[in-house]
Specification:
360 residues, alpha+beta, elongated
């Protein structure tokens, strides 16, 4: 009997101990330990923002020149590849007919002007009617207009260089008949060069903030050349890029030529209140968007996912982002893929400068 009592007593103690152990295990499984995270302090970006794109030099003006009047060509004075200065006579039409028309118009204008001058003198002494006076003045204006039209046509028989440059191509030669507007020669402007680059939509929408443009040519890597913005194409191409057209005033000390490779740097000042510098390791990619984990709460021990826009990744491992971040904010800088919204964390302390390796 005593044996049975002892047995049941031991069994009761065992059940109590088992219950206590199970209770402890249940509590341990629900206990959450704050995760240690490495953090960094957000810095405000204050420098000029810049982006660089590749481009190719091309002739600034490759224009086709034509006569404004028709006729047979008397002489083409230039050859292909020849360098000419602004105002140089390139080609000339046969002036015979245009000269006759001009002389006839000049003689008619001279005669009508003399008659009109006499009528004006008589009108001032009330010797002719106002109607006769008006007719004489109108006739003189018509003769004057015809005279200058003939004079302009005679001058238009000469084709002159509109700028300094090279003769690219010659389409006609002497004694050939050309119509007005038909190209006779083409020229390349020697004073300027053009360069076009394609920029994405992220830079296109900031075009109002563009402030400075510079270029490096591959054959002169140590020389920065200032550029002038000509225009920005408002329509994207097939690759969803926008073409930007720049112009370079030629430096006579540099042997630049169309076809040379170059890199164009565009600078602008973004909104410094929203531009921040953070480590690239702090960026979290999810469903096509970029986030950072911002520490919040009273103790700054709870992470909150914050949307950012990456503007530029720098060579030192940092990124310039556009986000609602303030200087001094603390964000997670490592292990961002293992965190969850609202998770409690502990900041990993910085290593002691006087106790490297925690050996003391």
């Amino acid at each position: 009997m005593k044996g049975f009592s002892y047995f049941f007593a031991c069994l009761g103690v065992g059940l109590i101990l088992a219950g206590v152990l199970l209770s402890c295990q249940g509590k341990t499984s629900t206990l959450e330990i704050a995760q240690l995270v490495k953090t960094t302090i957000v810095q405000t970006h204050k420098d000029d923002f810049s982006v660089t794109y590749p481009g190719v030099l091309k002739a600034a003006s490759d224009v086709k020149l034509a006569f404004r009047v028709p006729g047979p060509i008397d002489k083409v004075w230039v050859k292909e590849g020849q360098y000419v200065k602004k105002g140089t006579l390139l080609a000339q039409l046969d002036q015979r007919d245009y000269n006759l028309q001009y002389e006839a118009a000049a003689a008619e204008y001279k005669q009508i002007k003399g008659e009109t001058d006499r009528i004006i003198e008589l009108y001032q002494t009330n010797s002719v009617s106002e109607n006769d006076y008006d007719k004489a003045v109108a006739a003189q204006k018509q003769a004057w207009a015809l005279y200058h039209a003939r004079l302009n046509a005679l001058e238009d028989t000469k084709l002159k260089a509109p700028f300094d440059g090279y003769i690219q191509k010659k389409y006609f030669d002497s004694y050939e008949i050309v119509n007005q507007g038909v190209p006779v020669v083409s020229m390349i402007d020697d004073n300027y060069l053009d360069v076009n680059v394609d920029i994405p939509a992220t830079d296109y929408i900031r075009s109002a903030d563009f402030s400075d443009y510079q270029m490096r040519v591959d054959v002169y890597p140590d020389t920065l050349l200032p550029l002038e913005l000509v225009e920005i194409n408002r329509n994207a191409n097939f690759n969803q890029l926008f073409q930007v057209h720049f112009r370079l005033k030629r430096d006579k000390k540099l042997s630049l030529a169309p076809g040379m490779s170059a890199s164009v740097t565009i600078r602008y000042k973004p909104d410094s209140g929203k531009m921040s510098v953070i480590p690239v390791s702090a960026l979290l990619q999810e469903e096509g968007h970029t986030y950072v984990w911002l520490l919040g709460g009273k103790e700054r021990d709870v992470v909150k996912k914050t949307l950012v826009e990456v503007c530029q990744v720098l060579k030192d491992g940092t990124a310039i982002v556009n986000a609602e971040l303030q200087a001094g904010d603390i964000i997670v800088s490592a292990g961002v893929n293992t965190l969850k919204e609202g998770q409690q964390v502990r900041i990993l302390p910085s290593p002691s400068v006087s106790n490297v390796g925690h050996l003391l």
